[in-house]
Amino acid sequence: MQVTFYGVRGSIPTPGEDFVRYGGNTACTYIKLDDGTHIVLDSGTGIRLLGKRLLSDASPIHILLSHNHWDHIQGFPFFAPIYQKDRPIYVTPGETDELRPEAFLEQMSGSFFPVPREAIQAKLSLHQPSQNSWSISTAKITRLKMNHPGGGSCYCIEDSGVKIAYVTDNELYPPYAKNTDFLDFVTFVKHADLLIHDAQYVIEDMPAKSGWGHSVAEEAIKLALAANVKTLALYSHDPERNDAMVDELVEHANEIIAIGGGTTSCVGARESQTFTF
Ligand SMILES: [Zn+2]
Questions:
Q1: What is the pLDDT of residues 92-116, one digit of tens each?
Q2: Structural contact between residues 265 and 232, judged by C-beta atoms closer than 8 angstroms
Q3: Cα of 169 from ligand 1 centre, angstroms
Q4: How far is the CA of 178 from the centre of ligand 1 (A)?
Q5: How far away, in angstroms, is 216 Cα from ligand 1 center?
Q6: Ligand 1 centre from 147 Cα, in Å?
Q7: Confidence label for 56 from pLDDT (cuts 50, 70 and 90)
Q8: Cα 40 to averaged position of ligand 1 atoms, centre (Å)
Q9: Domain ranges of the chain
Q10: pTM (2 decimals)?
Q11: Residue spans of beta strands (DSSP E) within 106-151
Q12: Which CATH code for domain 2-276?
């Protein structure tokens, strides 16, 4: 299995010289299973480049959306495979509070985007599972509701003994009524080989940004340690957090882990970074 980041930024794209190493595209993570199956997590602006790379074959693409906030769907109209004739594309919307499974298509309405949804040539199917567990090819997919204004889903993908957890945008300790308790997240991501978790904020951002739907990096570290995950990728970098600040955050995270003798390693999610399992 291979996991590659195409977009790691929260809220809004951040071009500019201070953001080139980690990248400025919004959420998109790509998983290629050993049998070649394509799984795409979120369709932020990072999905544009991924789409160009997926044009070379005609095999099915499975897109799992966390929720419908712009930074998670904005790239969809630029995803080239949707204009490939009869390309099978399955989209699983997040479990948002307001059920609006076609939100990613509603933006292709002429007013927001010049190309209408009718221009899509692919065989596009909405996948709305009635259970929280299903299969994509040889992989087992499970989902859990996240804590975020408007709600949504996080996902685990397990295949050939490898477990990837994708948990963004998620506020582990929100001031509002939560969908999921911290200990349930621990169970959900337990023993993951790679936990991709929201770490948009740092302690100094609080309490001003409490309730905005994102976690403080230290909370993501706590989850990774409690669940004994192998690698934690801090994800959904704040638009204000430049490369040097992400470096500092990662260093701080690894210091915390080392003091307790933990074996988890922490990285800052970075565009083009690939993990091979
Ligand atoms: Zn969001």
A1: 999 999 999 999 999 999 899 999 9
A2: yes
A3: 5
A4: 15
A5: 15
A6: 10
A7: very high
A8: 17
A9: 2-276
A10: 0.97
A11: 123-126, 133-136, 139-145
A12: 3.60.15.10
Which pLDDT belongs to residue 110? 85
**How many Å lie between the centroid of ligand 1 and the Cα of residue 162?**
27
What's the 230 CA to ligand 1 centre distance in angstroms? 26
Tokens of 192: 């993951």
One DSSP character per residue, 65-134 reads -S--SHHHHTTGGG-GGGGSTT-EEEEE---BSS--TTHHHHT-SSSS-SS-GGG--SEEEE---SSSEE
Distance separating alpha carbons of residues 8 and 45, to the nearest angstrom: 10
Compute, in angstroms, the gap from residue 69 CA to the centroid of ligand 1.
Answer: 5
Residue 97 token pair: 């509070």
Over residues 199-246, the pLDDT tens digits come to: 999 999 999 999 999 999 999 999 999 999 999 999 999 999 999 999
Instruction: State the pLDDT at residue 260.
Output: 84
